[in-house]
Design a protein that fits this description.
The structure is a single chain. The chain is an alpha+beta fold. The chain contains four helices and 14 strands. The chain has one domain. It has a four-stranded antiparallel beta sheet with strand order 1-6-7-12, with no helix packed on it. The protein has a four-stranded mixed beta sheet with strand order 3-2-4-5, with helices on both faces. It has a four-stranded antiparallel beta sheet with strand order 11-8-13-14, with no helix packed on it.
């Protein structure tokens, strides 16, 4: 080895040994379409816990993040019966109602599963696996890249880049971002689930969007997204997806867990 190469090797080794100020992880969406699964749920609804458990089981049933991106949105319209869901947001109730209008549905309900922006009532049947397989077989119509730094001050510093591939869909498409947390536990003291201990995964907290794309179909932004109070960073992560405004069609979805 020449002296120049030896010195270069020493420099590389020294740089690799230096501690990083903030661990960073990245993810890039697949060439195929990843299915977005939204569960609208509430701790005040006695029929919701089975759906919560089903959502938690998706990865163990073969629906990993390259196939399915799950997110649980807790609605607030059950709070009136005596138990205030600590994860509920009026924003999520509004989103559910708006998507119902797009689908021309007369009512909203819990638990409700939306698959690629459409009501899917056969979520607990084999039809779900078949529907996901059909979605995964389609080429992606958008690209998403996420870069996530370690939690700082209860926030995730997130950088996202996205692109809508079909020029005809660029003006109609919007990017959404959400933080989520797994392994949440609640001891319910009132309402229909009084006395039960409920567990939740993929619970959405912060929600951003829709963010518009430029004329070239590209979008790049950096955000500092808050986590749940007392969040465990290792159990948290970020979801990003591209959805059309006119018919709620999901073009692509991506999730990224927090750095260790």
């Amino acid at each position: 080895m020449t002296k120049a190469l030896f010195r270069a090797a020493l420099v590389v080794a020294a740089l690799q040994a230096m501690p990083s100020d903030a661990a960073e992880c990245r993810a890039r969406s697949a060439a195929h379409t990843t299915a977005l699964v939204e569960l609208y749920t509430s701790e005040g609804c006695d029929s919701c816990p089975p759906a919560d458990r089903w959502l938690s089981s998706l990865a163990s049933r073969g629906h990993g993040p390259d196939r399915v991106v799950p997110i649980a949105l807790h609605v607030d319209y059950w709070d009136y019966i005596g138990w205030k869901d600590p994860y509920a947001k009026a924003l999520f109730s509004s989103r559910q109602r708006r998507l119902a209008q797009v689908m021309r549905a007369k009512v909203v309900y819990t638990p409700q599963v939306l698959l690629q922006g459409e009501d899917f009532r056969r979520w607990h049947a084999p039809g779900f696996d078949e529907a996901v397989a059909k979605i995964n077989a389609r080429p992606a119509r958008a690209r998403i890249e996420l870069s996530l730094e370690s939690v700082s001050g209860g926030h995730f510093p997130v950088e996202v880049r996205a692109e809508v591939l079909d020029a005809a869909q660029r003006a109609d498409a919007g990017l959404y971002l959400a933080t989520y947390e797994n392994k949440l536990v609640s001891a319910v003291g009132a309402g229909e689930n009084r006395g039960k201990t409920l567990t939740h995964d993929y619970v959405a907290f912060e929600w951003v969007g829709p963010l518009g794309f430029g004329p070239d179909g590209r979008l790049s932004t950096r955000r500092s997204l808050p986590l749940l109070p007392k969040a465990v960073p290792a159990n948290s992560g970020v979801v990003a997806f591209v959805q059309t405004r006119s018919n709620a069609e999901v073009l692509q979805a991506l999730m990224l867990r927090g750095c260790p």
